[in-house]
Amino acid sequence: MRHDYKYAPGEWGTLGREWRRSLEADNKSDNTVRIYLGVLWQLGTWAMALDEPYEPTEIPTSALRDYVKKVLDATSPGNAHNQFRTMRTFFNWLVTEEEIDRSPMATMKAPHYEPPDVPILYQDMMGALLETCPGRDFVDRRDNAILRCLWATAGRRREVSVLNLDDVDQDYDELKVFGKGRRFRTIPYGAKTGQAIARYLRVRNRHPQAALPALWLGATGQGGLTPEGVRAIVARRAKEAGIGHVHPHMFRHAYAHYWQLEGGNENDLMRIMGWKSREMLGRYGSSAASERAHKSAREMAIGDRV
Predict the structure, then answer these.
(1) CATH architecture observed for domain 123-291
(2) pLDDT tens per residue across span 21-80
(3) What are the extents of the domains in the chain?
(4) Which residues pair with 164 in a beta bridge?
(5) Which residues contact 211 (CB under 8 A, 6 or more apart)?
(6) Global pTM?
(7) If 280 and its partner were Cys, which of 59, 215, 262, 275 is the partner (CB 3.0–4.6 Å)?
């Protein structure tokens, strides 16, 4: 697939194209490559427009500090933090490729950034969502199965949205999803989710487009659902349930919260969620960390031991 990326002048463009090939060889997702190259284009364009232009193999730490401050002043700490991480990855790659001896960012620290906690979907909220689709018609059974898949597997919106019929193993109650980094993984689900999927498949068999490979079909003959379609279903059911705004990623945060609340193994959670970095444990666990801390404190009852 051809992508029309933008490249800055000079070595920024030459090395940027090589970095793109390296990222693709490392199996980075198209979205990750797009974000990384976008950051490099912004940095390179800025560096070449200075009174004293800098190529990537010559740019000093002081100039990079100026650029990070510029991003901080013009945008947000979150954006500056993300750009910093991408820049660091690029210069580390230059070291690996022996284009430079040492990264100019080696002594730099990322801008301080506290990501906002993502609200999680609590069990009573999930119950309210399911109560909006109790029927036996196609739409209710489809939406019920989608909600239960999101809840029981913690699959990302895109992972769940693009499932095909062959990705569902009803004998072992597992979904095979294609996740970030172009990696496949299987996720088990429970009896209630299996029942919801089986009920949906029965009505799906009578759908005019039942021959299509997509697991989730639209109700009006538009083919398989898209990730945006799944987002819209979740939002519509949340509105019907009267529980405020709900988006699919809240299901993943809920899964991580309840897993850790019950003392589940963190390495196992990482495998289920499709994470490579342990940093994600803290990021996803922060949403309801106080609740888990209070539960642990009550169970240990340290104050009652004397």
Answers:
(1) Orthogonal Bundle (1.10)
(2) 999 998 887 888 999 999 999 999 999 999 999 999 999 999 999 999 999 999 999 999
(3) 11-96, 123-291
(4) 214
(5) none
(6) 0.69
(7) 275
* Contacts of 69-77 spanning 24+ positions with Cβ under 8 A: 70/46, 72/111, 77/111, 77/112, 77/113
**Sign of the torsion angle spanned by Cα atoms 172, 178, 184, 187:** negative
